[in-house]
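User: Could you check the structure of this?
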Amino acid sequence: MVYSLFALASSFRSRSSLGLSATLALAACSFGLVACGGGDEPSSEPESIEVAKSALQRDTSPQVSATALIAYAKSADALTADLHRAIAAESATNNIFISPYSISTAFSMLYGGALGATKAEIAKVFHFTVADSELHATANKVALDLEARAKKGGQGSDGKGFRVAVGNSFWGQKTMTWKTPYLDLLATEYGAGINLVDFMGESEKSRLAINAWTSAQTENRINDLLIEGAITPNTRSVLVNTIYFNAAWANPTESSTVDFGAVGAKSSIPAISVSGTFRRSTTTDAEAVAIPYEGNDVELVAVLPKADIASYEASLDGPKLDALFAGFAAKDVALSLPKLTIKGDSVSLKSTLNTLGLKTTFTDAADLTGITDGGMFVGDVIHQTFLKLDEKGTEAAGATAIANTGKGAPSELEKFEVNRPFLVFLRDIGTGAILFEGRIVAPSYAP
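Assistant: Sure, the predicted structure tokens are below.
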């Protein structure tokens, strides 16, 4: 699963008082928002914690126009490109792994309570072009569609079943008053309530409760989203989104090796290999292959730039990804792909988002009064991910927290050997949601 957390602090406090000093670890980073158990799934909520919730139930059949879904897919491509470009600019030598889906979903929850310049800023950075009347319903439909993928059945990468699970939650200071319209929005579109905790009096206990919930939601892959000191008495709320993915490949693969690296500096590393009919796409500056998972609803897209990867990344944008994904056509392929294991640290996304234009939202000038009149701003955005890719399939998890402190044997095969730095996208075909995304320059694998 992926989690996203927003820690909100009282607006009269200095932003430096959050005490969160995680650095952006590009070796394996992912971003998301803190999530709570669904309002219609009480078993996912922490026991013994009082929950403020709307009397309304989650809308399990949201009515969303085709126009809104197309806009959602385009915004997903644009945000993914923006995040990747900004993070890649920090370093050319490290792996990257993030969850654009989690980050965007978490911010859509926050967006529901933002007003004025803060709302306009979030919409611009996250490419929210759908009208407010449909935006949250679209987020709800995409989440429901994702979870429906697993209902077709499957074995998963571990033989325990195909899983796609999305979670949303909100954790708020118990002494504050939370606005009814926002509680209604959380309930109907995100299946969440507000878990009432005491950040002011029991900061550490609150942090451990959120981490325990996050760990459970991600099948123990994200255990320490909030590092010690991330939650302080100045924290007022934490918004979380989680996504967990575990699926076997649609086609049986075999263990193999691939000579990976630059010309003259290649080394043999563990890989998977498979031959069959796959979707291929070629543009002026890159070539890609899409490898489907069981059910053929979700795919892993491996992208090999034709020139150096740094130049490709620097020019990456939404239209470029749109063209790449729109150009897929069936081809007979002999594929080799490195095995991967990424265990990311808990990292801060604040500076990256600030670079992309999220500025007022991080100051005490932020307007989140659609949530509470208590006065809050986003103090930090924390993200953590996990990836394991081998011949059995893929397991991926992620978490993000926003702290407010306020795929027949072919007759002829095209060779597609992923033997140099590449980009990877774990993408839902139907909705266009990019669940996970990254850059691999130094593949490593641990069984």
